[in-house]
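Q: Given only this backbone (634 positions), what sequence would you predict?
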């Protein structure tokens, strides 16, 4: 079918408020908006009231989906599966909401959720939404001090967690991390609800910790019901911390109303999924993809969503994804390219695919990092379905540029996530803020206002919000991605313009790692850069300058640094290489030439920076990288 995209995009350009007012009809409101967009506050659906849990769960139970599976928990890592219908999901959420309410959680209170990929994580998010509490999910692969930073920023009254998570070959005890984080933080939550898992239980602290199962079961037995609390469309639904350029993460705020409208619209228009169908985002609830497309969007749309606790390979093999697709009749899979690189590495011929009936499968969507053509071609060839790249950020919560399959797919151009979605007016500017011509690389920005669903601010940090996103290019939101638009309006995203690196689809701050490394007693100075990695896209590399007098050998210090980053940031940083070098290359004004070092390490063409202090340092680095076997050509 011919795509309706251009017509719909132009319709949005002519009348953005009309476009979103129309999309908002898909949501149930207690009170409609006074203003679709309020210029004064830059908020969508001002004056409206709603409840995200009602729209995600209750209304489906009321309108014929009570018996339809809402969440399928598929956990190859524990060898278990559980299915929750919409009615059962409602029971779970109501019971947990009741336990939370009895512990004094009310509208506007913050609740941190630090959990592995278990359905209780989704119940906890929805229970918060139900009572108007603001959740903040922290990814399980972060260390105690990262959790502590988030506790101090969000100041939660309650934390919901589990005894452990399970990674291939090891059980990760969460409770000691939680206790350590609470001990470190200034703000102490008054209650923790802890899910005891069979793989490893934990001790509970009297007076603070509640056993999840015990209290939720009691609430169910007593048939405790908790009505949905009416919140303003502009009230926060959640805070999700993401890497900034410093060790202090940014608390991205998501509102209730605009978020629902945008996500609901995206399910048909972008993913071409109908209510009742089975949709799978293979990510983690700790990331934005998990928030938007494991939990909220599929449920808002009345789909069945998959909560998968496993990895693309090794749980038990590279055929896991195909098993899940065939067993649950999945139509649409959304994951990061790195997952496919992992599968391709294990099973280059895609032999596992033949073992499964994949007839339900229609499309693969990739995001989170640049989708390389090799990976796309492999997936297209082996799976025989179209593969769509799309580009977005934690800040936006949904697609900025994509291929709107539900409006009629546009031709695919490899290397491009395709075109701007309605709501987004994408421009490319030079460093002075002037628009550049087609095909010219520049700063990718979005003309304000941002659409519904995108962040209205950072938690407790309005100034930082303005400084990080709005000040450099007045009138625009700075994405901090560099790219270009071609003659057909297709966008190409090439790289970040800041110190963020992307490791296995996970966004990490090199600045945060540098802060940790600088804390080591023997380190005088350091630089962390992201170097190319075949599987994970990028991997961090730490370059160290040591003090004149040190307390250990270079090799020992390098090992200690690797351990330190894992302890302070977490295993998710995948920080495996630290390298002592004699000097760091700098400009004459003292700025470390990170981009040049990265090019050398990646074996890319590089030019001697005109402002370099001492060109000989680059030879020293090249030698050091070569000696360590880090990829350098020529
Ligand atoms: N709790 C505790 N530790 C965790 C964790 C969690 N929830 N998640 C990851 N980790 C650990 C891993 O065990 C690993 O530790 P190790 O250094 O001891 O091996 C480390 O953090 C790095 O994890 P990860 O980047 O996931 O690497 P991996 O080698 O375990 O797996 C992939 C690589 C590609 C298979 C995996 O990253 C993947 O499936 N990615 C695609 C999906 C995705 O997560 N996308 C992100 C957003 S869309
Ligand atoms: P996150 O906030 O973790 O989703 O990371 C967002 C960043 O990941 C973006 O700013 C990009 O740098 C990168 N990214 C996400 N999706 C894509 C994509 N499809 N193509 C290229 N880069 C992407």
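A: Predicted residues:
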């Amino acid at each position: 079918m011919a795509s309706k995209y251009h017509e719909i995009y132009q319709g949005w350009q002519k009348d953005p408020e009309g476009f979103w007012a129309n999309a908002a009809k898909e949501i149930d409101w207690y009170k409609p908006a006074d203003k679709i967009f309020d210029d004064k506050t830059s908020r969508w659906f001002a004056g409206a009231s709603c409840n995200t849990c009602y729209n995600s769960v209750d209304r489906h139970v009321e309108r014929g989906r009570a018996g339809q599976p809402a969440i399928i928990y598929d956990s190859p890592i524990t060898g278990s599966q559980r299915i929750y219908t919409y009615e059962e999901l409602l029971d779970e959420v109501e019971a947990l909401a009741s336990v939370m309410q009895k512990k004094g959680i009310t509208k506007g209170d913050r609740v941190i959720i630090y959990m592995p990929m278990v359905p209780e994580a989704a119940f906890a998010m929805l229970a918060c939404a139900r009572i108007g509490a603001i959740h903040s999910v922290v990814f399980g692969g972060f260390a105690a001090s990262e959790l502590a930073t988030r506790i101090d920023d969000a100041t939660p009254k309650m934390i919901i967690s589990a005894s452990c998570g399970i990674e291939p070959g090891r059980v990760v005890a969460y409770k000691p991390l939680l206790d350590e984080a609470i001990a470190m933080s200034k703000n102490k939550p008054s209650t923790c609800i802890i899910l005891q898992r069979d793989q490893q239980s934990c001790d509970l602290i009297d007076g603070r910790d509640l056993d999840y199962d015990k209290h939720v079961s009691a609430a169910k037995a007593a048939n405790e019901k908790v009505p949905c609390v009416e919140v303003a469309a502009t009230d926060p639904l959640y805070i999700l911390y993401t890497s900034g350029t410093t060790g202090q993460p940014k608390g991205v705020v998501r509102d209730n109303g605009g978020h629902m409208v945008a996500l609901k619209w995206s399910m048909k228009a972008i993913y071409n999924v109908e209510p009742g169908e089975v949709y799978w985002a293979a990510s983690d609830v700790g990331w934005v993809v998990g928030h938007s497309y494991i939990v909220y969007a599929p449920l808002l749309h009345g789909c069945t969503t998959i909560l998968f606790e496993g990895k693309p390979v090794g749980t038990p093999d590279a055929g896991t994804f195909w098993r899940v697709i065939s067993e649950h009749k999945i139509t649409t899979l959304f994951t990061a390219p790195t997952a496919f690189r992992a599968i391709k590495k294990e099973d280059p011929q895609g032999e596992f695919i033949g073992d499964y009936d994949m007839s339900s499968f229609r499309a693969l969507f990739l995001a989170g990092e640049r989708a390389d053509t090799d990976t796309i071609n492999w997936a297209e060839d082996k799976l025989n379905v179209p593969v769509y790249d799309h580009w977005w950020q934690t800040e936006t919560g949904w697609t900025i540029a994509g291929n709107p399959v539900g409006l009629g797919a546009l031709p695919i151009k490899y290397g491009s996530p395709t075109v701007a979605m309605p709501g987004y007016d994408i421009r490319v500017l030079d460093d002075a803020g002037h628009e550049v011509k087609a095909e010219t690389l520049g700063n990718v920005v979005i003309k304000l206002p941002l659409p519904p669903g995108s962040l209205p601010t950072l938690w407790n940090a309005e100034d930082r919000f303005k400084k990080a996103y709005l000040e450099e290019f007045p009138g625009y939101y700075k994405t901090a991605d560099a790219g270009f638009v071609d003659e057909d309006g297709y966008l190409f995203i090439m790289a970040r313009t800041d110190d963020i690196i992307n490791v296995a689809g996970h966004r990490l701050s090199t600045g945060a790692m540098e802060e940790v490394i600088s804390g080591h007693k023997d380190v005088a100075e350091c630089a962390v850069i992201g170097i190319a990695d075949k599987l994970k896209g990028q991997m961090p590399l730490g370059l160290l300058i040591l003090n004149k007098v040190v307390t250990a050998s270079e090799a020992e210090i390098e090992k200690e640094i690797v351990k330190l980053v894992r302890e302070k940031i977490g295993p998710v940083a995948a920080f495996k290489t630290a390298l002592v070098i004699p000097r760091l290359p700098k400009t004459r004004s003292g700025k470390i030439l990170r981009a040049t070092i990265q090019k050398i390490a990646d074996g890319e063409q590089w030019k001697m920076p005109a402002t370099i202090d001492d060109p000989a340092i680059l030879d020293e680095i090249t030698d050091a990288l070569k000696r360590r076997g880090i990829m350098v050509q020529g």
